[in-house]
Amino acid sequence: MNVQSALQQGTDILDRAAVGAPRLTAEVLLCHALHRDRTYIYAHGEDELPERAWIHYGRYLDERLKGKPTQYITHRQEFYGREFMVNEHVLIPRPETEHLVETALGHLKGKGELTVLDVGTGSGAIAISVAIESGRPVLASDISSDALRVADRNRQSLGAPVSFFAADLLEGVRPHCVDLLLSNPPYVPGGDAANMQREVREWEPHVALFAGDSGLEIYDRLLAGAEQAVKPGGRLMMELGYQSLAGVRELLAARWTDIDVVSDLAGWPRVITATLAP
Ligand SMILES: C[S@@+](CC[C@H](N)C(=O)[O-])C[C@H]1O[C@@H](n2cnc3c(N)ncnc32)[C@H](O)[C@@H]1O
Fold first, then answer.
1. Which 3 state secondary structure label does DSSP give 123?
2. pLDDT at 35
3. Cβ distance 3 to 44 under 8 Å?
4. Cα-to-centroid distance, 91 and ligand 1 (Å)
5. 106 and 54, same structural domain?
6. Where does ligand 1 bind, in terms of residues with CB under 6 Å?
7. Domain harbouring 122, CATH code
8. pTM for the model
9. Same domain, residue pair 114 and 62
């Protein structure tokens, strides 16, 4: 079996099972099995596939057919131009979340020293990107110690000035010490599980996805904590779930001002920003 025919076979198998982007997925899995990049596959199409690579490739295809996301097979996902290590303990960082990073960087530009905290950091994608791009230290927390281990590996490999700690939301954070609070919290209503993609529902950590029946439970608790942890006049930036804008606006109404919403490329409200009233 040569490289080219292995690629074709993998593509056909994935295509028959209606896996999305079968050719690209087969390429990524074959590259992972060969420890090579895509240019190698095309330059060495006639080469015999080493037996070890063939065994690994077969296993990866089988895992993908069972619904495992490609990123949990390769343990990689690109975010804001960098490669993050991921595993089943962390949400796979999504491109939409880059809007939160952009918004945070816009706010930080030209400002002096500020305390920045990312709550529910998962792989560390937001905290690490903001820290590297802004050249500032960032604090980040998660309730999952397994997620924090992944985040810390990413911190080390990317050389980011981020300090992590384990906490239930803002528990233990000193009152009024945060200048900029960032979060992409869990926001999927429990009842939506049945309509989710199988890859997400069956493989991504439920603690990263679901937030009670309404999808607003974590926003509600996070805002209660933020009103204590953020400095008066400090800023909050959160990713919005599908259909969570109205509920989050209501939760912000009592204590937050200067509320702005940033839409994503598809036009959906994606990031909400607000200032804690003095
Ligand atoms: C939607 S994921 C976001 C992960 C990452 N920030 C990203 O954008 O890719 C939500 C994260 O919040 C964490 N989380 C859930 N409940 C939490 C809680 N009560 N306190 C702190 N973190 C929590 C989960 O473990 C998960 O890592």
1. coil
2. 96
3. yes
4. 8
5. no
6. 90-91, 93, 97, 119-123, 125-126, 142-144, 147, 168-169, 184-186, 207-208, 218
7. 3.40.50.150
8. 0.96
9. no
